[in-house]
Structures are given as structure tokens and as C-alpha cells.
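EI: anyone free to look at a 214-residue chain?
SC: sure, send it
EI:
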Amino acid sequence: MKTLALELSTARGSVAWLDGDTEISREWPNDRKNSAAFFESIDTVAKKFGAPDVIVVGLGPGSYAGTRIAISTAIGLSLGGGTGSVPSLELGRHGGRPSINLIGYPSICAMEGNEYCVVGDARRSSFFFAHVRGNALVEGPTLFAETEVKDRIRDLDPDLPIFASEMLSQFERAVVRFPAALILARLAQKPEHGFSLPPLEPMYLREPHITTPK
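SC: here you go
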């Protein structure tokens, strides 16, 4: 199954292609104000391999802007058959273009390791905590105050890794680790994982904050 994976939820962006034994991955510092590296990577993969069968998107939690860009790009690619220059004899559901399935999965489940916890800054003096085992969520992500996260970490097995996608010095055990598009692509080959189906949305940790006029 030809799989394209897109991951833009953190400060390290990545795109990956997986088809049988062929694995290609590109990573770069993710500047949220400039998506050139992201689109250049997709263009390179598309020109070399053509249209995928599946596009899997990392849904966060993390940068809403980055995740929305990845989702919007996946939708555009699916509607365009992956790339306008790719011919196909198989007529799909998109007006004669190849059928491309869209799925999403939590980005925090796409880190190296069989079992780990993830903490992240959720702003407004709160942090999220999640427990991942076998690349699947077993707890969270749930919002806590800083002291509550410290208590949770203190109660964990001291050998259990704690990851964060940015430096959070208040949590001494937290090691910076980023989700990877290649892991997302590998997970997409495993139907036992519960993937999100369209319409895809970023993982929201709280209800949207709306500023009302005075």
C-alpha cells in the first residue's frame, strides 16, 4: 500500500513515503511562518513516486496552525489525485482521478519507543499529559496544572521515558522528542489502530477560546 504521511504538529516537520520495502523520510526545522520546506518535500516525493493510496496526517496535539496546514494539504492532494501530472488507468471517486483515502492519528503516538509518556505546554498555565503504549493512547491527553503533572511523573516508574516536543525545564525527566511521519506511515499499515476518518481535525485539548467584544 502506497502511503504518504504528513507531520507538522511540532518544531520538526516531516514527510514520509512507504511502499513495501521502500521507505523515504524527509525532516526539517518547522518554521510555522514558512511552509516552503514542507511543500518542497511533498513535491519531491510526488514527482518520484506518484500518487499514494493512503495519506495519513498527524493530528497533534501541538501546533494548530501546522496541523491545519497538513490536513488541508492532504485534502487537496486527495482531490487532485496526489499530483496533477500522475496518470492512472484506475478511475477513482474523484472524477476519474486515483482514489486516495485520508486518515489521521495522534502525533504523540508516532514517537520511537514501545511505552512512554508525553507532556506538553497547553498554554494558560496548563499542561497536557498522555500515556502511550504500543503507539496507542492508553491515557489522555488530559490537561493538568504544572504541580499535578509533576505529581503524575513522580508516581511513574522511574524507567518510563517522558517525552516533550519542546524544552520544558520544569519537568526534569522530560526529554525532547519529536513525532515522525515515517512512524505514522508504518502505523497506517496496521488496521488494528483506531484511525480518525474525514473530516479530519486537529486534536483540541479544550474548547476554543472566544474573545467577546466589550
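EI: Helices lie at 36-49, 64-79, 146-154, 181-187.
SC: 👍
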